[in-house]
């Protein structure tokens, strides 16, 4: 989502934006940019007047190595090397022909006319990709100090397109890049690496894009047919191999069964690890010993008490929803297809309790008629009534699935859920998108109202209570409370979405008395924006006596006025979310999606 390189297209506005390398010359009129690889010169150590300048060559203490073999369920590729190299690729004659056809499609058949898919708009400011990867580089702590309990790594995922988009481009279409800040003994190192997906590898070897953008490349029958035919031609001529997937792995991460996975809901997870010097390495696609052969959600839920993981996938053909889980050892259990969801719905997230899994069938789904008219195949349907589905979390089939109509309830993310009254009542907290028709097209018009939904499973009565009227999303909790009743939520303030201008702390117990639930907040300042906050407990998770909010809230924050990025650590218990530490980063971190913190003890096990 470095003012040093936030405008990388020569056609972008260059106000407030600087290049790290000489910008490419503008393309000839009425033509499009061809085969431009995003690259950047290696980061130089800044010259300072301090007596102890920051050294970019210093690396964190090595993580103790463990002897292990790569499981057969990881399918690695030759692209897993950590360093990128510049190679001049001479495209074949078929490639030149297909690229020319691609340019015709992007210029005449389906040009990026809408702001939501125009790369000059979507990739402006700090949404622009960084121009290359960054090896572990030491950062400067400019305020406060990093506490010992944060020894480990905060890693955040997000889109960072490898090549300049030739045509329509949506924010969700970029290649996944992980930005990790490794913390050890009060010092910090930043590392940024692509997730070496099959798509990334094939396109890097080719030297140009091969895959159409899923979220923006199929608007209308003509555009869909043209790009579909071109993709088929690339497959038939051997340019594209889909046997290893085509996902982006750009959405989130999860730590489960001693494995760190980068996730995107259109493909299998990718297994990654932090190497001994703090670098990020992609191990390959992970299929759980061949038992996961299709995609899974980017938001699995981990029960910290049992060690189990719960997940699902959704798609455009029946069953439109499939639920499944993994035991504490990472062994996938059989699928539970949900045929009672009778039409395809956009189902990005869900929630669990100790007894149930909860799904929201919202008003966003597949819309073929809209595509025929030239629109996106995914859109909102105002005539559809939103529903919440509840299924026992250990169900072997959908026979006990119950659906409840909840008109106007449209969630993209769920915050948490829990059981009440011996499991006869469920309560769920989630941001409800009030202007759902703008979710994919005009995100700056979105307003997300955090609500608590109470469902009586016996009577079918559904009650809803507003928690906060502010525009809040990307909310997190203390991860030890997933599926259990929690009190505190930390949410990003949209100003407008998807930019996050600050973070607020909500006390859900005040919502029961219809009181204002915001009990703490920190705004980042004019022109400063962050992303999803993340809560890290001060003490080890095994400390059952620790307060739920005894810990830290962290986030990357970018200053669009100066072009600098920082890493903030805040005191979660303080009334103003007081700053504990501010870390100046050696280069900017673009706006992105979801992340997590991995403690030092867990890094040693990956």
UniProtKB/TrEMBL annotation:
Binds 1 Fe(2+) ion per subunit. Fe cation binds at residues 299, 348, 413, 594. It comes from the Eukaryota. GO terms for biological process: carotene catabolic process. Keywords: Dioxygenase, Iron, Metal-binding, Oxidoreductase. Residues 17-88 are annotated as: Disordered. One of its GO terms (molecular function) is carotenoid dioxygenase activity. InterPro entries: Carotenoid_Oase (IPR004294). GO terms for cellular component: chloroplast stroma. The keyword Iron applies. Pfam families: RPE65. Belongs to the carotenoid oxygenase family. PANTHER family: BETA-CAROTENE DIOXYGENASE, CAROTENOID CLEAVAGE DIOXYGENASE 4, CHLOROPLASTIC-RELATED. This is Carotenoid cleavage dioxygenase 4. The lineage of its organism: Eukaryota, Viridiplantae, Streptophyta, Embryophyta, Tracheophyta.
């Amino acid at each position: 989502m470095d003012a040093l390189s936030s405008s990388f297209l020569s056609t972008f506005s260059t106000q407030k934006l600087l290049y790290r390398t000489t910008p490419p010359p503008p393309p000839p009129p009425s033509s499009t940019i061809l085969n431009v690889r995003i690259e950047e010169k290696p980061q130089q150590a800044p010259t300072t007047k301090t007596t102890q300048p920051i050294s970019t060559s210093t690396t964190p203490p090595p993580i103790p190595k463990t002897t292990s073999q790569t499981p057969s369920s990881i399918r690695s590729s030759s692209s897993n090397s950590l360093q990128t190299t510049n190679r001049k690729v001479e495209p074949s004659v078929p490639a030149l022909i297909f690229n020319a056809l691609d340019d015709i499609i992007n210029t005449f058949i389906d040009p990026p006319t809408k702001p939501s898919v125009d790369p000059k708009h979507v990739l402006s400011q700090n949404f622009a990709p960084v121009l290359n990867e960054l090896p572990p580089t030491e950062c400067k702590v400019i305020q406060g100090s990093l506490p010992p309990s944060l020894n480990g790594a905060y890693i955040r995922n997000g889109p960072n397109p490898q090549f300049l988009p030739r045509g329509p481009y949506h924010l969700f279409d970029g290649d996944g890049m992980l930005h990790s800040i490794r913390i050890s003994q009060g010092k910090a190192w930043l590392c940024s690496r692509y997730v070496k997906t099959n798509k990334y590898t094939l396109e890097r070897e080719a030297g140009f894009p091969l895959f159409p953008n899923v979220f923006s490349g199929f608007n209308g029958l003509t555009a869909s047919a043209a790009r579909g035919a071109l993709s088929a031609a690339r497959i038939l001529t051997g340019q594209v191999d889909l046997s290893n997937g085509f996902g982006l792995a750009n959405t989130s991460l999860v730590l489960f069964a001693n494995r760190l996975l980068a996730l995107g809901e259109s493909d299998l997870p990718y297994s990654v690890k932090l190497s001994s010097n703090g670098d990020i390495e992609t191990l390959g696609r992970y299929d759980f010993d061949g038992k996961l052969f299709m995609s899974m959600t980017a938001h699995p839920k981990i029960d910290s008490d049992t060690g189990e993981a719960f997940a699902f996938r959704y798609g455009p053909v029946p069953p439109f929803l499939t639920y499944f889980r993994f035991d504490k050892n990472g062994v996938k259990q059989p699928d539970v297809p949900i045929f009672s969801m009778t039409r395809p719905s956009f189902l990005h997230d869900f929630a669990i309790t100790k007894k149930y899994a909860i799904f929201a069938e919202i008003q966003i789904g597949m819309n073929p008629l809209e595509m025929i008219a030239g629109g996106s195949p995914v859109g909102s349907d105002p005539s559809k009534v939103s529903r919440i589905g509840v299924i026992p979390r250990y169900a072997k089939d959908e026979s006990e699935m119950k659906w409840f109509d909840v008109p106007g309830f449209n969630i993209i993310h769920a915050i948490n859920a829990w059981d009440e009254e011996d499991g006869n009542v469920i309560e769920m907290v989630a941001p409800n998108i009030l202007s759902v028709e703008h979710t994919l097209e005009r995100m700056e018009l979105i307003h997300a109202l955090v609500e608590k939904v109470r469902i009586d499973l016996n009577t079918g009565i559904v009650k809803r209570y507003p928690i906060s009227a502010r525009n809040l999303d990307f909310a997190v909790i203390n991860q030890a409370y997933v599926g259990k009743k929690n009190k505190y939520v930390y949410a990003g303030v949209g100003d407008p979405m998807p930019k996050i201008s600050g973070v607020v702390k909500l006390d859900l117990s005040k919502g029961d008395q219809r009181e204002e639930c915001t009990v703490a907040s920190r705004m980042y300042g004019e022109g400063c924006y962050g992303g999803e906050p993340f809560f890290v407990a001060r003490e080890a998770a095994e400390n059952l006596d620790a307060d739920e909010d005894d810990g830290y809230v962290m986030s990357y924050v970018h200053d669009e006025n100066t072009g600098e990025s920082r890493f903030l650590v805040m005191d979660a218990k303080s009334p103003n979310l007081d700053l504990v530490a501010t870390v100046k980063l050696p280069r900017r971190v673009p706006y992105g999606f979801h992340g997590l913190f991995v403690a030092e003890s867990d890094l040693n096990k990956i």
